[in-house]
Input
Amino acid sequence: MRAPILQLTNVTKRFRGLVATDRVSLTVAAGSITSLIGPNGAGKSTIFNLVTGYLPLSEGEIRFHDERIDGKSTVALARRGIARAFQIAKPFPDISVHDNVRIGALFGRDGRRDVDQVTERALALTGLEDFADRPAGDLTVGFLRRLEIARAIAARPILLLADEPCAGLNPAETEEICDILRRIRARGTTVFLVEHDMEAVMRISDNIIVLDAGAKIAEGTPGEISANPAVIAAYLGTPDAA
Ligand code: ADP
Ligand code: MG
Output
């Protein structure tokens, strides 16, 4: 296995009495697409919120490369190269697709270096060149998802977290997002993915981590995960499986 870029050790998050994640340990290998799956309420978004500094941990530690990052702010983490693409994109609707992506580049890891070139590359990688001059508010949901990914990668992250990038998309749009994530991996950016679309997850993931009710229940390749009895039980036990 490749070197870990992200490492969580015994990460627990409590909301008052509720244990949202319970001593979760996991690693994301550099250069991989690693997916986090599990039924609703399993703790997936909580893990993303902890890794990106939106929430403080209750216990445990998080390392990025060799540095302990739990307790650091989202801004400090963005500077170190951790970016997040949200499911609900909130672009500036009245300005162009190009300028929305440019804003991502301006606030990226290397600050204001090569902003124009980085913007063009992010637009090309997400297939948005032909829409560059349109107001972002004109985009369909599938293209908004691409814009959100473009904005995030324009910050030149080392690690990109994508929270359900395929939610609500049709099969063709989903395949396009999968291709974009593969291109992001191919250029060396590690992808940490939460996604409900199991076919998409199985197609593009190098490694899959399964959470159920806040605890990690399995980890492995797509082949290993789809044959794992504990995973099958977790999914068949919920309406999600249908
Ligand atoms: P998932 O993304 O896997 O569906 P979440 O991480 O969103 O699950 O939620 C895990 C558990 O933590 C759920 O029971 C949820 O209701 C709870 N939870 C998540 N965020 C908060 C919060 N900010 N305050 C209180 N409870 C929360
Ligand atoms: Mg969630």
In short: The mean pLDDT is 93.
